[in-house]
Specification:
Blueprint: H1 2-5, H2 9-30, H3 34-84
C-alpha cells in the first residue's frame, strides 16, 4: 500500500484533507463550483476548437499561395540541376 500511495496511509489521508480544505476554501471565496469549472473548461476547449479550424483555414490558404510560387521554382531548379549531372 505504501508503494502505491507513495507514503503511509495516514500521512496521505492527512495531506489530502489539508489540500481539500485549502482548495474548498479558495473555491468558496471565488464562488467556484466543480460543475462551473467543468463548464468553463468545456467552453474554452470548444472555443479553441472552432477558432483553431478557422486558423487552419487561413494557414492552408497561406500554404497554397506560397506553394504556387515555391513548387514551380523547386521543379525548375531540380530540372536544371538534373541536366548538369
Amino acid at each position: 500500500m505504501n508503494r502505491f500511495l507513495g507514503d503511509s496511509l495516514l500521512r496521505v489521508v492527512l495531506k489530502l484533507l489539508v489540500a481539500s480544505l485549502l482548495v474548498g476554501w479558495l473555491m468558496s471565496i471565488f464562488g467556484w463550483t466543480p460543475l462551473g469549472i467543468w463548464y468553463a473548461i468545456e467552453g474554452a476547449v470548444l472555443e479553441l476548437w472552432y477558432s483553431g479550424f478557422a486558423a487552419l483555414g487561413r494557414f492552408g490558404r497561406y500554404i497554397l499561395l506560397g506553394a504556387a510560387v515555391v513548387v514551380p521554382i523547386f521543379i525548375l531548379i531540380r530540372l536544371f540541376s538534373y541536366r548538369r549531372t
